Amino acid sequence: MTSQGVAGIADQVDLLESIPQLAWLAAADGTIQFFNQRWLEYTGVDVEAMQAEGVKGIVHPDELALIWQRWKRALQDGTPYEIEYRLKRKADGVYRWFLARAVPVTAGGSIISWVGTATDIDAQKRSNENLRFALEAADVLSSALDERAACQNLARLAVQQLADWCLVTLADGALQHRVIALEHKDKTHLQPIENDQRALVIESESELGNILRQGIPALFPLFVGRINGMQTHSLMIVPLASTNQKFGALVLGSAYSRRSFDQADLQVAQSVARRASEALQAARLFSEEKRTAQRMRFLAKAGETLFQSLDLMENFENLGQLLVTEVADLATVVTIENESVLRVSAIAHRDPEKIALVEALRGERTMSPERERRAISALRRHRPHVTNNIRTTTLERTARPYLLETFKALGPHSAITIPLHSRGATHGAIVAYYTDSGRTYSDDDIPMFVELGRRAAIAIENAQSYERERRVATTLQEASLPTLLPTIPGIRLDAVYKPGTHEAQIGGDWYDAFTLEDGSLVVTIGDVTGRGLQAAVIMGKIRQALGIVTLYERDPAKILNAADYILRQRWPGEIVTAMVAVINPGRDSVRFANAGHPFPLLRYHDGSIEELRSIGLPLGLRNMAESQPTQSHELASIGLLTFFTDGLTEWTHKLPEGEQRLRSILETDAVMHSPAAAHLISESCIHGGAQDDVAVLTLTLGTLERWSFAAENAKAAQDARQEFRRYLKRLAASSDEIAQAEIIFGELVANVVRHAPGAIEIEVDWTGRFPDLHVIDRGTGFKHMRALPELLSESGRGLFLVRRLARRFEVERIPGFGNHIVVQLPTERR
């Protein structure tokens, strides 16, 4: 280097020593040649150390890569160098922000050196970061409607702009805070804390808890230690509170950045905390409004559930399912029986895999005798209560020993108990539990559950009142229906009445059949509109009136008109549908009239179906139009008359489907050969219980030889076989054929006994050359084989033998009822 070049460097050194910035000189290739005194005092790094170690250790690690990238580009391009970075101060290890600039010095068109400075911009940088933090926090918090989300967003912004880590706590009672949001620049620090539930609870006795309990802002520019497991260099704690409510705290820490918080930082944190407190208050108000709306929706659903049916246990089961869907993991309804027994009447669990466990508790007395007595006594005080921190020892003291393991497996840890009471009577309780969801009940939940209990108690009262009325109405209706149907040569009568199930009350359906002095058979059937005790009373009176009117009037239309007059006089506004039919003494014709009732169905001997059509207004309305005259129909080719009320065809609420089902049953041969045709029809048409009352009355014209006995009654079966043999001996010509017929009879009965418990109906129809044996059972069906699977096989041998001996063998499946077997016997009449 020339003397002029050395003199030039000396001038530059003098200049750099005189300026307030940190300054340095570098050769054309970037090698550091000089640091001014201010650089040395701040960093403690001289030229030799820099050439040996580089900037690592004095420049913040986050900026290292960018510094080298920019510096290399400047050296390559010869362009000025500029960057903002953090330099560590030797005195305390604190990083401060600097603006670094370097420009090339040229001579003769070539770069001969670089002159650089680093200006402290930490205050400006912090001010900008603080302002950005305050503005972004205000923007995020202004739209926050969820408490947890607001806290998480606040922590995220704090770490982006101000701190190395941040946690937001919410007061959890007077003695502790719970960490609701946690952020760290280094995510690896989060998982150990988040996985340790104890680290998320700040007890009042801890160092941080003691500071939080004071409820005032705290600044620790230098804080050597750890907070909740996080290394901390500087710390700020700012309360989150409104005028009359304390929410929690905003805790900000610096760590590897070595930033020392100051009063300006604290003021910004306080400003943000005020906005956060306002946001938390708004979020809690919104959350409370939301919870109120959810509770109202839940109570509305619960009300619908409790009152959608008059079957109380069904409603309680549905309520349990609703509870575990919305506000519980496990829910039970316990009821008090005989003043001293507490039994689980309904139970549900949120987790389908726990269903087997809860089913073990259904119908059980789950508490030890002493605990059961104390629980019933507590329920009678009608005070709801919340129980938290349910421990295994509590379960051991409370549960019956054989149910203890079930309770342990369910793991309840929080419960709310709501007594069910009304008019001074205590019915039981709704008990809801949280198990493994981590949630707990508090006193804030009590008002909603109390309202739920009030509605449940009303539902219990309604169900009890309904049941009392139903018992009275049922008794009245059963007393009003005929106890016996007349026995008439040439006609087989059968009738059935089925009260509605589920939400239906007792209706006003009836049937009746009786003979007159001249031998005529009168049939009436009808349905009172409406339900309950009133309908049952009207039904009994109208049925009785129809019977009395026939003593002096034999015209069905006039009989209905007389009943209409009685109804309008005694119960104006009530409506009754009815049908009256009178079969003449010769049993070859029927006269009939209708008052708005479903048309009876006629089944001809050839299997065809026809309606016994007749129109007319219902009783109660017949004065509004001219009465239709009585009609008649010949019965010579009719095999079956079926009278019914609308519950038979409308039980699915699809009338065409119900009517088609009825017709398909009437088209079967089984209905003609059953001694209980009405029962067969009703059970085949209605599956799972009728929603409405159903009355069916059938008249089978013509009588055949028949036997009926229970499959379990071996003596009755043996007697029937002997009677069958005597019957054949009277009419059959061949003893061999009689023996074959007896074998068929015995094998059929034996097969039915094995596969179809219940009543067995057997009938012989010998109107043709060979007799047809009809067997009707209640079984699920069976297969008959044309050949045995093996020569010595016993399986199917009986039916195989029947098939070989019989002239014809058919099996007709009766949906919803059983089987109809038809066998033509190999026996000719004498």
Description:
37% of the residues are buried. It is elongated and about 150 Å long. Helix content is 39%, strand content 27%. It starts with a helix and ends in a 6-residue tail after the last strand. With 830 residues, it is α+β, with helices and mostly antiparallel strands. β20 and β21 form a beta hairpin.
Quick overview of this protein structure:
By secondary structure, the protein is α+β, with helices and mostly antiparallel strands. The protein is 39% helix and 27% strand.
Give the mean pLDDT. 83
Helix content class:
25-40%
Strand order of the largest sheet: 8-7-6-13-12-9
How many distinct helices?
A: 23
How large, in whole angstroms, is the Cα Rg? 47 Å
> Which structural class is indicated by helix and strand composition?
alpha+beta
What's the architecture of the largest domain in CATH terms? 4-Layer Sandwich
The top-level CATH class of the largest domain is: Alpha Beta
Low-confidence stretches: 1-7, 788-795
- Give the strand content: 25-35%
Count of the domains: 5
Query: Using DSSP, what is the number of strands?
Result: 33
Sequence-ordered SSE layout with sheet pairings:
Elements: H1 3-18, E1 22-27, E2 32-35, H2 37-43, H3 47-53, H4 61-77, E3 81-88, E4 95-107, E5 110-120, H5 122-142, H6 147-161, E6 165-171, E7 176-184, H7 190-195, E8 201-203, H8 207-214, E9 218-220, E10 225-227, E11 230-232, E12 234-241, E13 246-254, H9 263-307, H10 312-326, E14 330-337, E15 341-349, H11 355-359, H12 369-379, E16 385-388, H13 392-398, H14 404-410, E17 414-422, E18 425-434, H15 446-480, E19 491-498, E20 508-515, E21 521-528, H16 533-549, H17 556-570, E22 576-583, E23 589-595, E24 601-604, E25 609-611, E26 631-634, E27 638-644, H18 655-666, H19 670-673, H20 677-685, E28 694-701, E29 705-710, H21 714-731, H22 735-755, E30 759-765, E31 772-777, H23 797-805, E32 808-814, E33 818-824
Antiparallel strand pairs: 1-2, 1-5, 3-4, 4-5, 6-7, 6-13, 7-8, 9-12, 10-11, 12-13, 14-15, 14-18, 16-17, 17-18, 19-28, 20-21, 21-22, 22-23, 23-26, 24-25, 24-27, 27-28, 29-30, 30-31, 31-33, 32-33
Helix pairs in contact: 5-6, 5-9, 6-9, 9-10, 9-15, 15-16, 16-17, 21-22, 22-23
